[in-house]
Amino acid sequence: MEILQQVINGLSLGAIYALIALGYTMVYGVMKLINFAHGDVYMLGAYAGVFAASGLGAVAVINAGGHPGWWIVVAIFVIAMAACALAGIVIERFAYRPLRHQPRLAALITAIGVSMLLEYGGQAVFSPDPRSFPALIPDIALINTANFRLSLVQVVIVAVAILLMIGLQFIIMHTKIGSAMRAVSQDQTAAVLMGINTNAVIAFTFAIGSALAGAGGVLNSIYTPKIDPLMGLLIGIKAFVAAVLGGIGSVPGAVLGGLLMGFAETGVVAVGKSEYRDAIAFAILIIVLLLRPAGILGKSTAEKV
To answer: Where are the domains of the chain?
Structure first.
């Protein structure tokens, strides 16, 4: 049962990593850009969730000893995802679009600059002090034995993550904008010649990826109810490693990489080496780059230099 407990813990954590990794892999697939500000958009999602919970009265209900209705919780998720989608569109429009035809190094440096702007701007606006996240979902044990505990929060995290991943897959494979995204990913120049509005497609990609990061920010903050403006730094790196592990540019690869990262991290904790739980991400990154640079589901492609 102890192994089953670690599987459940790893699945919950891996689902969050997968949601954030999807944003990395989608943007890279369309623009060949590593958006290092993506982890900080996850942070914005957590803060948007706090402000939405306060504005909709959920915080007052929780402080009074009650639990907010499910429609309020859903509304908080939607508001946080919408706020992050808007942030992603703004970042793409003003930070990355002007550099689209410049050397990739310029866009990479800009991504690091946007990340730092969000982190230190967040400290100026939200205060650098950590704050608690409201318990939107009651910590109820659905199964509770001596060696195993399955909470409602864990079930909700996995269920919401699965629904969002299914929705993303549907958009990519069965909608007109999804077809345009795949076309731009394969050949942006040819997509333009076919009449596809690449600006709109790229902005939509940023919006979807950022919305998923916002959902991850709310889910992880419910699971670990403490947030601060620098919370996206480490988890963003871990999600990036997950995307590389699965195969950067591959949507199924991002999901697989996120789950493997979650299992690896909980496995390190399970064997009593919790002090290495953060280092495991970097160890995995080094191993992947040495053995299979394209990732598990990625494909090696020749590039003209």
So the answer is: 23-236
Of residues 37 and 285, more confidently modeled: 37
pLDDT of residue 270: 84
Helix (H), strand (E), coil (C) string for the chain: CHHHHHHHHHHHHHHHHHHHHHHHHHHHHHHCCCCCCHHHHHHHHHHHHHHHHHHCCHHHHHHCCCCCCHHHHHHHHHHHHHHHHHHHHHHHHHHHHHHCCCCHHHHHHHHHHHHHHHHHHHHHHHCCCCEECCCCCCCCEEEECCCCEEEHHHHHHHHHHHHHHHHHHHHHHHCHHHHHHHHHHHCHHHHHHCCCCHHHHHHHHHHHHHHHHHHHHHHHHHHCCEECCCHHHHHHHHHHHHHHHHCCCCHHHHHHHHHHHHHHHHHHHHCCCHHHCCHHHHHHHHHHHHHCCCCCCCCCCCCCC
Task: State the chain's mean pLDDT as an integer.
Answer: 91
Q: 271 to each of 26, 265, 275, how far by Cα in Å? A: 34, 10, 11
Tens digit of each residue's pLDDT (9 = 90 or more) over 79-91: 999 999 999 999 9
Identify any residues that bridge with 132 across adjacent strands, giving them in sequence order: 226
Cα(283)–Cα(26) distance, integer angstroms: 24
CB-based burial label for 222 (10 Å; 0-12, 13-18, 19+) = buried
Pairing of strands 226-227, 131-132: antiparallel
Q: How confident is the model at residue 1 (pLDDT cuts 50, 70, 90)?
A: low
State the pLDDT at residue 294.
Answer: 85
Which residues are within 8 A (CB) of 221 and not within 5 positions of it... i.e. 6 or more apart?
46, 49, 50, 133, 227
pLDDT tens, residue by residue, 67-79: 899 999 999 999 9
